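Researcher: Here's the sequence for the chain we discussed earlier.
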Amino acid sequence: MEKPKSLFCKIDRQWLVLLGASLIVVITLVAYIPAMQGGFIWDDNKYVTENPLLTAPDGLRRIWFSKDVPSQYFPLTYTTFWFEYRLWGLNPAGYHIVNVILHIINALLVWRLLYCLSVPGAWLAAAIFAVHPVHVESVAWITERKNVMSCLFFLAAILTWLRFIDLTISRPWKLYALTMAMYMLALFSKTTAVTLPVVLLLVILLRHGEITWRDVSLVIPFIFLGLDMGFLAIW
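Model: Thanks. This is the structure I predict for it:
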């Protein structure tokens, strides 16, 4: 059985990596040209065009520390809208382009993650991820920024977790803290990121072939953080 690749593994053919990344960027941009030319739809008015928190002097504070948000508690997602409103106002192109950029980063992270897990055809899987129709709603609909943002931090958390569990002799706890931070950012983007603890255990199983009680103890803080965020969202 092929030994799993370490996150520290270096690829000799850097030009090939650059070519692969460039192709993913190009095919994603081509696929989403229509979206970048689109406007506001459905409940984009609730999130952006008619959202008083984007224009209020204390809007950023209220996004994080009040119940004034017009939907669920997605403070990081609303924060990006708050900053973008100050950059390009109500020009929908800016919001669409940001969504596409986030999706491109996600596709590249998927490639990196699958490669480090020794999954055959990692680049092809990432390319399919980039242009698969199932993602159109999340990328082309401005309101669904919460999906692409949550996905980005979710994938980043898995990658930092991989690096953490690979260092079995001397685990750098700053990587554990970084994984937790990525998880929190994913939760602040969309609460459905609460599934991450299960994924972390599955990664351990794939990497080491078993899950020990020590592994479970490492994941327990993530479970409690997810529960806390879930209760906060409900409140």
